[in-house]
Design brief:
4 helices
Length: 138
Amino acid sequence: MLPGLLGHEDETLFSGGRAMACSLVKKKLKAFNEALDGTYKKQSNWVVAEENLRKRICQLVVDAIVPVYRSYIQKYGHFIEQDGIKNVKIYSEEGLVNMLSSMFQPKKGKCYSTNTRQSIDKMSEIVTSRFPSTTVVA
């Protein structure tokens, strides 16, 4: 969902001139930011207690979102810099990676019930069966 908000197909049709292009870039970035912030806020209460699974999920999220965002900013960021578009948040790549990697962390001081633990174990089984372990080379 999030990467699709920054699709490049519209930008190839900048027949409306620079003002139209700036408007479209701003609109897409605002839509992406709203979706990202909303998703992050909603899922910040979700916890994946098993550390390796949590890291794997976060890495999959980073791998799905960051390259698309980076590409969009590299290709269209000059509209924001040159025209001084205001009120549009631009994430640094490091900031975006840190934000996405911080998801699903256990909250300090919270205890988990048996039902919560069982739900976490079930989710862990589902995710690991759908996303088999692979080696990631940095």
